[in-house]
Automatic annotation (TrEMBL):
Source organism of the structure: Shewanella surugensis
Protein name as catalogued: UDP-4-amino-4-deoxy-L-arabinose aminotransferase
Gene: arnB
Domain of life: Bacteria
Assigned keywords, A-Z: Aminotransferase, Pyridoxal phosphate, Transferase
GO molecular function: UDP-4-amino-4-deoxy-L-arabinose aminotransferase
């Protein structure tokens, strides 16, 4: 690690993962094949999901899941604005309308009470987001889903290794996980769709590779039979084996990776509690296991004496990286202009989204850190805070 700069994140790739990737390079088979199959099996074991499909990204998974669930023009999809833009982009590209739901001011997650009042006859899907590594209150959300007969697609990009009431995220429902470089387990770029629904899994598997049908040859050999036929026009969203090979070892170490994140997160939270004007997120009050994907704090400007953007800049001068997860999507240029006339009413409906969009900051958290790195971040924050007092 560069001694001078502490980045927001560094992947948990070790020498054995690098060896695994080199073996794939030497094997002569570098794109989708055995490694992807093994990764899919490991994901089903880890999450308890019945089916797992590897993809080029979570965004690709979102695109295919929306298509497979029949989302199109005129449909409404309820999702937070405080999420990654890919969800809103995919909904919009399919001609559907994102209906933004507010989030809890403490956990940044939405819930059934907030979603319920937004349901209309046009609502076709709910996409809630497991946030920062904590789980949504799924029981209440699925009760709502059943009452109105509207499917749920869980954005589990942050939630590989997270548990809700003793069950892993992915064990029920349809989920999308991300294996992007900053996520807890990574293939550099990649995503996984999990479901218990065989038809949906088959459809997404087909759509990820040109819409080609799967045949017996395919199941027995790596790669696809040259005689496979296009069943419907599809995309090119498959994951290469070279990438999949990186995640196999990480997944086998997932408990150790998550435990280390826990240790660091708890150390952070203990120390952060002593700094005025810095507020860590609240934790859900139902039983859960956090995977500590992100360590998010809020900078309360009138108490800390500085706003979030200046705070991130100040951290940088101390050689510390930070991030924003996330800026409210509806306030991005394109969506702002699209909703120009309705901006005020959207803003009014999303008070917790707006304030958090301005105040949240993600601090460095990755398994190769140790407590001394946390101390360094804490000391930098204390220095920044004291400089404010002097100013
Ligand atoms: C990272 C992320 C995504 C997108 O993942 P990609 O693999 O980069 O496409 C979607 N939603 C959330 C909440 C994310 O953090």
């Amino acid at each position: 690690m560069n001694k001078d700069f502490l980045p927001l994140c560094r992947p948990a790739i070790d020498e054995s993962d690098i060896d695994a990737a080199i073996n794939v390079l030497r094997s002569g088979w570098i794109t989708t094949g055995k490694q992807c199959n093994e990764l899919e099996t490991l994901i089903t074991q880890q999450t308890g999901a019945t089916y797992a499909v590897t993809l080029s990204s979570a965004t690709a998974g979102m695109h295919l899941a929306l298509l497979a669930l029949g989302i199109g023009p005129g449909d409404e999809v309820i999702t937070p604005s405080l999420t990654w833009v890919s969800t809103i982009n995919m909904i919009s590209l399919l001609g559907a309308k994102p209906i933004f739901v507010d989030v809890s001011p403490h956990t940044l997650m939405t819930d059934a009470e907030r979603i319920g009042p937004l349901i209309t006859p046009r609502t076709k899907l709910i996409i809630p987001v497991h946030y920062a590594g904590a789980p949504l209150d799924l029981d209440a959300i699925y009760a709502l889903s059943e009452r109105y007969n509207i499917p749920v697609l869980e954005d589990a990009a942050h939630a590989l290794g997270t548990q809700y009431k003793g069950r892993a995220i992915g064990k029920t429902g349809h989920c999308i996980f991300s294996l992007h470089a900053i996520k807890n387990i990574t293939t550099a770029e990649g995503g996984i769709f999990t479901t218990q629904d065989e038809n949906l899994a088959v459809r997404i598997r087909r759509l990820r590779f040109h819409g080609l049908g799967v045949d017996a040859f395919d199941r027995e050999h790596q790669g696809r039979a040259p005689q496979a036929e296009v069943i419907e026009p599809g995309f090119k969203y498959n994951m290469p084996d070279l990438c999949a090979s990186l995640a196999i070892g990480q997944l086998k170490r997932i408990d150790a990776i998550t435990d280390k994140r826990h240790l660091l997160a708890h150390h952070y939270r203990e120390k952060l509690n002593l700094i005025r004007g810095i507020e860590p997120l609240g934790l859900p009050d139902y039983p859960h296991r956090h995977c500590w994907h992100l360590l998010i704090v809020r900078i309360i400007p009138h108490i800390f004496g500085m706003n979030r953007n200046d705070f991130i800049q100040a951290l940088k001068t101390h050689g510390i990286g930070a991030g924003i997860h996330f800026k409210a999507c509806h306030s991005q240029k394109y969506y702002r202009e699209l909703n120009n006339e309705h901006m005020n009413s959207i803003d009014e409906r999303l008070p917790n989204t707006l304030i958090n969009s301005e105040q949240i900051c993600s601090l460095p958290l990755f398994p190769d850190m140790d407590k001394a790195h946390v101390e360094r971040v804490i000391q930098a924050i204390i220095n920044i805070s004291e400089q404010q007092d002097e100013a």
